[in-house]
Recover the amino acids of this structure.
């Protein structure tokens, strides 16, 4: 029998209907589907030695003595060449609301950056050394803190698209960062859900979830000193995972050096398990963090959400906002725990 | 320059970034992409003469004298063979909330029905005669009113998935209906957005939008006596359309006979224009209607939303809930107005 489950942190209901899955191995990608990729690609604008093909870097982790926009980098951040939003320093525009008839609009003011994770064209997070993943996380934090100083940036979204079904076209390993001049509904709703829980219980709902899931065990995929990775009770999609810091912190900007290592290690591990369990499926991940003005609230808690792209949302999902998940998170977590680490 | 636009009815912001489109004709499907389909398919469980392959019908429009579950039907409604939710009459379960540790759950109680729109395997809404589309709409209303009598059905979602990217596997023309035992967040948020507007202005936001857009003209795709079809100011995706009744009505159950004809005519017309403009793209449509207990409120207004599946939402959309639309609704509407009707 299908069941409805409510996500305690977001307030969203989902329908768990594993009977609708076609066969137990339906999510495993066919072996031939992904083609071999070289370590360096002649036409790739993100490969080392092609720095002049992309916009100039705004940040990089580099070998000592190497020059900006030349060789010798380990992680490199550049403005997106086809940006969704443009910084006001570039456009000269501001992020004030204005009216168009009965509607509201804002100029497309914001930063849209690409974080090139490694010079090696063929790697991915789960095939890099942990030390390299840690450099990526360090870069996330560095850019987060820098961009958070601009009062126009109400919210900073760091995300990664892996594979075509996840919306990426460039295979070179990279993440992205977008800063928004508004707090969108979905984020406001999560904050409100969190504050409601806090007012009732005096607790952070994410802290409570971590404590509960660690006791329950069967939805936990991996743990280390600073993080827990789990398949949420009300997962929207098969193999959805949340990586949650054990220490309460609303904003990703609060992450400490030791935690950066822990995040790199658990992220690499669970993406490795996902890769092994399903043969390198497409996925997105995103860091959900508090908006600028809520950076220290007791009722929100940043976390990294991994969304494998294995199924297609259809009309029902568009109309209701309710996801139909044809797998159970308990089963996904078991499969991931039993898979190799990478 | 990109811009942010706020949807007045839903409160959602979107980013309009037409500069990110690869080329002006990027949305037009390649001619060879869709294969020829026969009028009757030997292996199709929805074709006439195969009635015994599917569950027994719960409603049908039939030739006089024809028997249930036999030949002679024009539109036919059956329970979904792989349902997302199961009626309590079948499962013996009820839709009460219960606790699983710190979480809430509900048994998967509800109706999940398939509306087979015609015995002809190869048709679609935009290639059927209007009279046939009207029979489909009549069937929607009939099932809506019947299922709305069950107090477990807080919300009724009627939707259609067209093509693989829209999540359908069976090509035979069909719609679906799901009844939910809860009001999900996304619907509650639309109601709250509507009530906020109503409290400020004394008006229904959808009525105001229709009046404004009809005066503005350039986002309107089609009009008749009872309906207006438009590309919303803050469309989430290229070629998104909303069909809105001119007469204020919160619930789809309120639609009158004359309006059923008007809805059939405008739906067929705009889907025909979409088909002609983009060479039969995949799409979903869904009827957004008020929950059962808000059926007569002055601040909500049912409407049919058409979502073409031309782009892939990625990590930014998952993290922020903000869609990046690489087209402008003004341009989509112009393209659709200039296309043939079918």
């Amino acid at each position: 029998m299908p069941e409805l489950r409510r996500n305690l942190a977001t307030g969203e209901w989902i329908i768990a209907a594993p009977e609708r899955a076609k066969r137990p191995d339906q999510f495993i990608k066919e072996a031939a589907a992904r083609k071999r990729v070289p370590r360096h690609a002649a036409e790739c604008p993100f490969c080392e030695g092609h720095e002049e093909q992309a916009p100039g870097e705004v940040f990089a982790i580099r070998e000592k003595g190497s020059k900006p926009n030349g060789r010798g980098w380990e992680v490199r951040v550049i403005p997106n060449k086809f940006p969704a939003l443009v910084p006001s320093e570039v456009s000269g525009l501001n992020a004030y609301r204005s009216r168009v008839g009965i509607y509201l609009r804002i100029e497309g003011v914001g930063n849209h950056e690409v974080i090139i994770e490694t010079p090696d064209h063929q790697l991915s997070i789960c095939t890099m050394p942990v030390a390299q993943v840690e450099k990526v996380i360090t870069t996330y934090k560095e850019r987060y803190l820098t961009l958070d100083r601009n009062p126009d940036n109400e919210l900073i979204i760091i995300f990664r698209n892996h594979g075509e079904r996840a919306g990426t076209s460039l295979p070179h390993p990279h993440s992205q960062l977008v800063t928004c001049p508004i707090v969108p509904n979905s984020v406001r709703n999560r904050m409100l859900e969190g504050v409601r829980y806090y007012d009732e219980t005096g607790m952070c709902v994410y802290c409570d979830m971590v404590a509960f899931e660690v006791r329950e065990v069967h939805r936990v995929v991996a743990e280390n000193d600073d993080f827990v990775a789990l398949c949420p009770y009300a997962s929207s999609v098969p193999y959805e995972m949340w990586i949650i810091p054990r220490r309460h912190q609303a904003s990703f900007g609060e992450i400490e050096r030791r935690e950066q290592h822990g995040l790199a290690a658990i992220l690499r591990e669970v993406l490795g398990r996902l890769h092994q369990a399903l043969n390198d499926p497409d996925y997105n991940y995103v860091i959900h963090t508090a908006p600028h003005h809520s950076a220290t609230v007791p009722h929100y808690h940043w976390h990294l959400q991994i969304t494998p792209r294995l199924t297609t949302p259809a009309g029902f999902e568009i109309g209701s906002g309710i996801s139909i998940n044809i797998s159970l998170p308990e089963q996904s977590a078991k499969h991931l725990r039993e898979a190799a680490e990478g």
User: Anything to note?
Assistant: The first strand of chain A starts at residue 3 and ends at 6. Residues 8-338 of chain A form a domain with the HIT family, subunit A fold (CATH 3.30.428.10).
